[in-house]
Design goal:
Layout lengths: L8 H14 L6 H4 L7 H9 L10 H19 L11 H10 L5 E2 L6 H8 L7 E2 L13 H10 L7 E4 L2 H9 L3 E5 L10 E3 L7 H11 L1
Parallel strand pairs: 1-2, 3-4, 4-5
Helix pairs in contact: 1-4
């Protein structure tokens, strides 16, 4: 979802930045890139690893910090509207719907439904994986395998679209065709790399997918 359907990275950055400042830990936009596609608790662990002096928190304290970050983020995403769909996504989702192709959201975000509702596209997806029921996070393939199972299709018949390296790794580990959005230099494992979401089209993906199979 994040970075493919819409870009909530700025909201995540602002929320994590607030937590980092509270803890007196340096936090930059460059480092924030490492948190893409990563669960909330794992993101917090990465943030804490940047502390000048090693810090330790109990499980309860970690949960409290993660919850505080989420509360900040939730307040920010209340501003999301259909205008926040990334370029070409509305047209792409329409293509998929008209072609009768099953679609699913495999996002590490526990706020996926809130974001999708704000964007006005929740009904366009057949499946939205509930990450609270998963045991493993990306790059583990569990989230994509769960989506395929809920869609009742074989992983090999699926195309996954991601903007994070950990996400692409998870797609490939699931045995799916991987489409990466971003800089080709970052995605050596992707089957194809598109510079931006405006380049997503059903015809383009099916042509590349057909070559692989």
């Amino acid at each position: 979802m994040d970075g493919v359907i819409t870009d909530t990275a700025e909201y995540h950055y602002q929320a994590w930045k607030a937590i980092a400042e509270e803890l007196n830990i340096p936090f930059t936009r460059v480092f924030n890139e490492n948190l893409k596609g990563v669960s909330r608790l794992d993101s917090l662990k990465l943030l804490l690893s940047q502390a000048t002096t090693p810090v330790q928190y109990s499980d309860v304290e970690m949960e409290e910090l993660a919850a505080r970050k989420n509360n900040l983020y939730v307040k920010l995403i209340e501003k999301i509207t259909p205008a926040d769909l990334l370029p070409g996504i509305s047209e792409f989702l329409t293509e998929l719907q008209e072609a009768g192709i099953k679609t699913g959201i495999a996002s590490a975000s526990k706020n996926a439904r809130t974001v999708l509702d704000g964007l006005g596209v929740t009904s366009w997806f057949d499946v939205i994986v509930d990450v609270t029921r998963l045991k493993n996070n990306k790059p583990d393939p569990e989230i994509f395998l769960t989506a395929a199972a809920q869609l009742q299709v074989e992983p090999s018949a699926c195309i996954g679209v991601e903007d994070a390296v950990s996400g692409v790794d998870a797609i490939k580990a699931a045995g799916m065709f991987a489409v990466a959005i971003g800089d080709a230099k970052q995605f050596s494992k992707a089957d194809i790399v598109l510079p931006n979401t405006a380049k997503l089209s059903l015809r383009n993906l099916m042509e590349h997918f057909a070559v692989r199979v």
